[in-house]
Write a structure and sequence with these properties.
With about 35 residues, this protein is mainly α. It has one domain (about 1-33). It has two helices and no strands. It has helices at about 10-15, 25-30. The radius of gyration is 13 Å and the shape is elongated.
Length: about 35
Amino acid sequence: MKKILIYDTTLRDGSQSEDVSFSVEDKLRIVKK
């Protein structure tokens, strides 16, 4: 079976949006979901 890698860019892409700022707590909450 072939190995599949998933690269999630939610935090990076979201934080690069205009007027978006994640706190450390926000980032941890997103990662834990």
